[in-house]
Amino acid sequence: MDKAGYLKNLRSKLHRLPTHEIDAALIYYEEYFDEAGQENEQDVIEKLGPPSQVATQILANFAIKDLDTTPPSTKKNMSAIWLIILAILSAPLSLPLLAVAVALIISAGAIVFSFVISVIAIVGSILFGGVVAFISGFFIITEHWPTALLFTGFGLVTTGIGILLTPATARLIKKIGVVCVENLAKLFQKITRKRKGDLQ
């Protein structure tokens, strides 16, 4: 593969980016090839790694930049997290560093996932328990009306608490997503700074 083939391949893998971002990335890498000289094209390709690897890192950089310039959303956070993880895993790290990065991502991901599921389960249980208690009150009203009133009142209060907690839970999950993206972005930027230093 020569410079033209490499850049063409890279362009095709960046099709999800806006045109101006693709052009800026290709200009950067074209200049990098030009500075090295035609006789060093294969060395440059070897240093950069496959176009798919470079494209993944460019996409992750764009995802981080996009989060800084536009309001975050859960979908955008998840997309950014996935792109950054892919970029970290595709970065040319030594085996021990890659193992550490993978272990950190998996353990942190497991903790965050468990916490989010626990919070959702708690709020869901409160809502479900409230609805069940409320409905149960109607079923026992003919047998013992004071107990029926107790169940109905408890059901209304519990359902109300669940409804009040739902928006707070959604905000908490969104905030967790932002924190995850920020921390992954820091890890990714450390890796790419080291990578740029190696390329120069």
Helical percent range? Answer: over 70%
Ranges where pLDDT stays below 50 over 5 or more residues in a row are: none
Specify the number of helices.
Answer: 7
Helix and strand sequence: HHHHHHH
> What's the number of extended β-strand segments?
0
Strand content: under 5%
What is the overall shape?
elongated
| Major beta sheet summary | none
> How far is it from the N-terminal to the C-terminal residue, by CA?
22 Å
Radius of gyration: 26 Å
What structural class do the secondary elements suggest? mainly alpha
Mean pLDDT: 82
Organism: Solibacillus palustris
Keywords: Membrane, Transmembrane, Transmembrane helix
Protein name: DUF1700 domain-containing protein
Pfam families: HAAS
Which features does this protein show?
single chain, 200 residues, mainly alpha, 7 helices, 86% helix, transmembrane helix, DUF1700 domain-containing protein, membrane
Structure description:
It is a single chain. With 200 residues, this protein is mostly helical. The chain has a domain at 93-199. Helix content is 86%, strand content 0%. The chain is built from 7 helices and no strands. It has helices at residues 3-13, 19-36, 41-48, 51-69, 74-90, 95-139, 145-199. α4 (51-69) runs antiparallel to α5, α4 crosses α7 (145-199) and α5 (74-90) packs parallel to α7. The two termini are 22 Å apart. The relative contact order is 0.10. This is DUF1700 domain-containing protein. The chain crosses the membrane at residues 80-106, 113-141, 147-165. Keywords: Membrane, Transmembrane, Transmembrane helix.
